């Protein structure tokens, strides 16, 4: 073999060897190659990017209802939880997350979130064998609800619901405008354990609220919801230049 051919053979061998290297100058490493967002299926990452801002790290400590509350997970089923994540809750601060409803997540990613919440935070003994009231809202009576409120809620939220020694106002117009009647029902049933608010079993020791009592107090709260949220003086003259 001539000297020229030997050089070409050596060069070709070196080139072939280098073709398999991942650390050539300018060649991206595997860790730096962008991942298709639709392919992300890690629960911690999906929850952290989409849920923790409102519901808190590990499902607790956020401004919204705790998803890490075993009582909540014992009351709500997977189909309802999936529907909420998929479609959001209209006219509230809970947006839709599924692409089918205008969000950013695939159906599979929604399932990862729902299953992850259930697997990590649920507790089969959360209700201690007590059957919970139905999750879905049922008709209530606001007049009866006033009496229910006085019995089960006034000791913390005050006689008119405007705040008491242990809790803040529960009839604040902005607060009520951000919640549907179903969300109010859920809050009454589940409470806010992180804020010291008990669930439906423990407002009055030894006297859990019935499903009808929950519906009635929700009807009373709903009746306090203002027509114009965020406008304390809806009948005041409209300032010049303000759009109707």
Key phrases:
244 residues; mainly alpha; Cytochrome Bc1 Complex, Chain D, domain 2; 11 helices; 42% helix; elongated
Describe this structure in words.
With 244 residues, this protein is mostly helical. Among the domains are: 85 residues, Cytochrome c-like domain (Cytochrome Bc1 Complex, Chain D, domain 2), CATH 1.10.760.10; 82 residues, Cytochrome c-like domain (Cytochrome Bc1 Complex, Chain D, domain 2, Orthogonal Bundle). 42% of the residues lie in helices and 0% in strands. The chain contains 11 helices and no strands. Helix 2 packs across helix 6, helix 7 packs across helix 11 and helix 10 packs across helix 11. The longest helix is centred in the first third of the chain and has 17 residues. The protein is elongated, with a radius of gyration of 28 Å.
Task: Summarize the structure in short.
With 244 residues, this protein is mostly helical. It has helices at residues 3-19, 43-50, 52-55, 70-75, 78-87, 107-121, 142-152, 154-157, 173-177, 181-190, 211-223. It is built from eleven helices and no strands.
CATH fold naming of the domain at 37-121: Cytochrome Bc1 Complex, Chain D, domain 2
Helix and strand composition category: mainly alpha
Q: H/E order of the elements?
A: HHHHHHHHHHH
Estimate the helix proportion, in percent.
40-55%
Low-pLDDT sequence parts: none
At the fourth CATH level, what is the homologous superfamily of the domain at 37-121? Cytochrome c-like domain
Shape: elongated
- CATH hierarchy, class of the domain at 37-121: Mainly Alpha
The average pLDDT value, as a whole number, equals 88
What is the gyration radius calculated from CA atoms? 28 Å
Record field, number of beta strands: 0
The CATH architecture designation of the domain at 37-121 is Orthogonal Bundle
Ends distance = 92 Å
Q: Helix count, per DSSP? A: 11
User: What percent strand?
Assistant: under 5%
How would a textbook summarize the main sheet? none
């Amino acid at each position: 073999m001539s000297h020229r051919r030997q050089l070409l053979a050596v060069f070709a061998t070196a080139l072939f060897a280098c073709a398999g290297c991942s650390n050539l100058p300018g060649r991206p490493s595997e860790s730096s190659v962008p991942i298709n967002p639709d392919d992300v299926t890690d629960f911690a990452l999906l929850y952290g990017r989409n849920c923790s801002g409102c519901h808190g790290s590990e499902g607790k400590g956020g401004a919204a209802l705790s998803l890490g509350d075993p009582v909540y997970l014992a009351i709500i089923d997977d189909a309802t939880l999936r529907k909420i994540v998929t479609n959001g809750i209209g006219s509230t601060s809970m947006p839709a997350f599924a692409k089918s409803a205008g969000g950013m997540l695939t159906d599979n990613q929604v399932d990862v979130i729902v299953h992850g919440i259930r697997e990590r935070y649920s507790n089969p003994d959360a209700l201690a064998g007590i059957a919970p009231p139905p999750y879905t809202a049922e008709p209530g009576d606001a007049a009866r609800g006033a009496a229910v409120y006085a019995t089960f809620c006034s000791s913390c939220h005050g006689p008119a619901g405007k705040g008491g020694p242990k809790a803040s106002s529960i009839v604040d117009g902005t607060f009520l405008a951000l919640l549907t009647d179903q969300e109010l029902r859920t809050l009454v049933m589940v409470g806010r354990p992180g804020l010291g608010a008990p669930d439906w079993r423990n407002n009055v020791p030894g006297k859990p609220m019935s499903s009808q009592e929950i519906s009635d107090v929700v009807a009373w709260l709903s009746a306090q919801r203002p027509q114009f949220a965020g406008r304390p003086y809806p009948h005041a003259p409209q300032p010049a230049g303000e759009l109707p």
